[in-house]
Design goal:
about 40% helix; about 120 residues; alpha+beta
Length: about 120
Amino acid sequence: MATIDECRAALDRLSGNLAQADGGVRGAAAMDRSLSCHITDLDQTFTGRLEDGRIRVDAVSPGPPAAKAEIRLAMTGDDLVAMVAGELKFAKAWASGRVRLEAGFRDLLRLKSLL
């Protein structure tokens, strides 16, 4: 089982990957939205923002998200680490219910190119 530090490192790596992306991916990530990522097996939630093509984590707190972020993710720590490492494809994990993504319709359309 992935630790909270490994999950934080995975989010930092994902942020770096988004910042270095080209073209449509960078454009899709260049939104300003609140973000939460609930790590279900650790019952911890990272909260922050997706802004300027980067993920900024502001806090980690126990339990599910206290407030409803504009973009909400939920998954196990192992799935987060595997997705960022390229070992698990987001579309497959999402289709099988291993990853949950909730956002407004327009945001989902923009995020589609990131996935």
